Amino acid sequence: MPETSTPNWGNVPESWTRRHLLGLEELGADEIDLILNQAERFRSVLMHGDRKIPLLAGKTCVNLFFENSTRTKTSFALAARRLGADVVDFTAATSSLGKGETIIDTAKNIEAMQVDAVIVRHSCPGAPKLLAENIQSHVFNAGDGPHEHPTQALLDILTIRQRFGSLAGLTVALVGDIAHSRTARSNIWGLKKLGANVILCGPSTLVSKNWEKLGVEVSYSLDAILDRVDVFNLLRIQFERQVVRPFPSTREYAHLYGMNSMRLAKAKPNVLIIAPGPINRGLEVTPDVADGPQSAILDQVTNGVAVRMAALWLGLGL
Ligand code: NCD
Fold first, then answer.
1. Where does the pLDDT of residue 30 fall: very low under 50, low under 70, confident under 90, or very high at 90 and above?
2. Triad 252, 258, 263: Cα angle to 5°
3. N or C: which end of the chain has fewer CB within 10 A?
4. Which pLDDT tens digit goes with each residue over 38-66?
C-alpha cells in the first residue's frame, strides 16, 4: 500500500474547539456537520486512494476498554493507524483494576507513559467525563454504560445522510431496547439537532413515555408506524444490562418487534435498515432483511472508521 501523497488537509477549523468527544448532547448541529463533512473527506480518500493519511503521525492513542467490543475498538484502532498514530490496547480483565486501582489512577499511569489520547468504554455513565476532568490527554467516549455512544450515532447519521442527502424532515425509528441503549440516547440528540423526527418503538418495559420529554414520539406498535418511517435503526436487546427480563419470551419479542420481510413489504419502498451491531439474527431482524438490499449495516461499519478518523483528527488537532 503506498504511504501517501497527502492532499492538503489544512488545519482543524477554528470553529472546532473541543479537545474531547464525550457525547452528542453537548454538540451543536454545526459541530456535528463538521465531523460528518470531515468524515466524508476521509472516507472518499480511503475508498478511492491511499489508506494512510498520516495527519497524526507521532501521536499515541490508548484503547481503554472496560467492556466488550468488536466493532468500536477495532474501528478506533484502524482510524488512529490510518492517521499514522500508534495504538496501544489496554485489557481491563488482565489489568490492576482487579487489584483495586481506580479508573483515574489507571488512566494517570497510562498517561505517564506519554500518550496523547484515551479512547474509553466503561459500564459507568460519565466515566469518560470523569477522565477528561482528571487527565491531560484527549478523551474519546467509546460508550459509557447506557448513557452515550457518540461515534456510533455519528456513523449512523452519516449512513442516513449518504442515502437521503439530508436529515431534515426524515422520520427515524429507533426500535428495541431503548432503556439500556447508549446508541439510542446519542442518536436522539444527533438526529433531533439535524432536524429529523424520532420515533422510539418497543415494549413499554423498554420504552417509557417519559422519553417524550425529549421531543420524540413513543410507539408501542411497530406495525402501526411501518408506512411512515424512512429509517429503522434496530437496536440490540441488551440482555447483559437487564436485571429483569422485559418480555415473556424472545419469540414474542421477534413476533411483535422483529423486522422481517413481511413488515418490510409494508414499509416505504426506499426505507433504510440500519443496526449498530452486534445483531441477534432472528430476534431484532431476520437474516434476509439484515443482508438484503435495504440494509446498510456494513456501510455503517465502513463509515465508522471515517467518523472516528474525523473525531480523532479534530480533537487531537487542538
Ligand atoms: C453498541 C454498544 O456497544 O453500545 N454496539 C456497538 O458499539 N457497535 C450496541 C450494542 O452493543 O448493542
1. very high
2. 120
3. N
4. 999 999 988 887 788 999 999 999 999 99
* Residue for grid cell 465531523: 35
With H, G, I as helix, E, B as strand and everything else as coil, classify residue 40: helix
Buried b (16+ CB within 10 A) or exposed e, 243-269: eeebbeebeebbeebbbeeebbeebee
Ligand 1 cavity residues, CB under 6 Å:
71-72, 143, 149, 152, 182-183, 236, 238, 276-277
What's the longest Cα–Cα distance across the chain? 58
Which segments of the chain does DSSP mark as H helices, in order?
29-48, 71-82, 103-111, 127-134, 150-164, 182-193, 222-225, 250-257, 261-266, 287-290, 297-316
Ligand 1, atom 7, lies closest to the CA of 72
Report the distance separating Cα 12 and Cα 318, nearest Å.
7
Cα 23 to the center of its chain, rounded Å: 10
**C-alpha cell read off for 213:** 420529554
Please answer whether residues 312 and 56 qualify as being in contact, where contact means their C-beta atoms are separated by less than 8 angstroms. yes
Give the nearest ligand 1 atom to 183 CA: 4
Q: Give the pLDDT mean for 149-176.
A: 98
Q: What is the pLDDT of residue 264?
A: 98
Residue 259 backbone dihedrals phi, psi, to 5 degrees: -85, 130
User: Are 303 and 158 within 8 A, CB to CB?
Assistant: yes
- State the first-to-last Cα distance of the chain, in angstroms, to the nearest integer: 29
